[in-house]
């Protein structure tokens, strides 16, 4: 694993999901536009908690490093904050990266799996393999051959169906 010449950065206190979403329920129904979808602050809070539970089911634990590999969609912040709530550290993968480029990143940070979307699951799976990936690379939408946290799909579908 690559080690920087600089000192390690200490963990953020409070955890990032708490720093960002701690007061999300206060504005309640205030809309939060994300990539053409509109979720309320309360929906983002509720959904990321459900997705965290869905990710913890297959074994996301403290110290794991999942890698959201998604364009800027509503799935990205939900997957990111859900993973940190589940205790994981997160590295985001730039969607246009090749499997080789993403694979080097995943190897450098010891990421074992990705959370991705239907346009790029094969790239994500190929990238995770050399890094010791588990083959459990969930997708945020529906893609044959890939596990998908149903709560995330339902939440994103609801967000796209609600009027802006």
TrEMBL record:
<dbReference type="InterPro" id="IPR000873">
    <property type="entry name" value="AMP-dep_synth/lig_dom"/>
</dbReference>
<feature type="compositionally biased region" description="Basic residues">
    <location>
        <begin position="147"/>
        <end position="157"/>
    </location>
</feature>
<dbReference type="Pfam" id="PF00501">
    <property type="entry name" value="AMP-binding"/>
</dbReference>
<keyword id="KW-0436">Ligase</keyword>
<comment type="similarity">
    <text>Belongs to the ATP-dependent AMP-binding enzyme family.</text>
</comment>
<protein>
    <submittedName>
        <fullName>AMP-binding protein</fullName>
    </submittedName>
</protein>
<feature type="region of interest" description="Disordered">
    <location>
        <begin position="118"/>
        <end position="164"/>
    </location>
</feature>
<feature type="domain" description="AMP-dependent synthetase/ligase">
    <location>
        <begin position="35"/>
        <end position="122"/>
    </location>
</feature>
<dbReference type="InterPro" id="IPR042099">
    <property type="entry name" value="ANL_N_sf"/>
</dbReference>
